[in-house]
Automatic annotation (TrEMBL):
CDD domains reported in the protein's UniProt record: Ribosomal_L30
Annotated gene: rpmD
Family the UniProt entry places it in: Belongs to the universal ribosomal protein uL30 family.
GO CC annotations on file: cytosolic large ribosomal subunit
InterPro entries: Ribo_uL30_ferredoxin-like_sf (IPR036919), Ribosomal_uL30_bac-type (IPR005996), Ribosomal_uL30_ferredoxin-like (IPR016082)
Protein name, UniProt field: Large ribosomal subunit protein uL30
Gene3D superfamilies referenced in this protein's UniProt entry, alphabetically: Ribosomal protein L30, ferredoxin-like fold domain
PANTHER family for the chain: LARGE RIBOSOMAL SUBUNIT PROTEIN UL30M (PTHR15892:SF2), MITOCHONDRIAL RIBOSOMAL PROTEIN L30 (PTHR15892)
UniProt GO molecular function: structural constituent of ribosome
Length: 61
């Protein structure tokens, strides 16, 4: 069986003043506060949300 790879995503900039779909992408990843980190599975849907808000987050593999 293959293991699901995980990613650590950290919100480094505030969501204030961003587009609504960018705020919803951060919420979908589980990010609420600046400097909050979450570990998510490396799936195409999560990658899409991360790519949408790449200027707000820091990604660690």
């Amino acid at each position: 069986m293959s293991q699901v790879k995980s990613l650590k995503v950290t919100l480094v900039k505030s969501l204030i003043g961003t587009k609504k779909n960018h705020r919803l992408s951060a919420q979908g990843l589980g990010l609420r506060k600046v400097n909050q980190s979450v570990i998510v599975d490396d799936t195409p849907s999560n990658r899409g949300m991360i790519n949408t808000i790449n200027y707000l987050v820091k990604l660690e593999g």
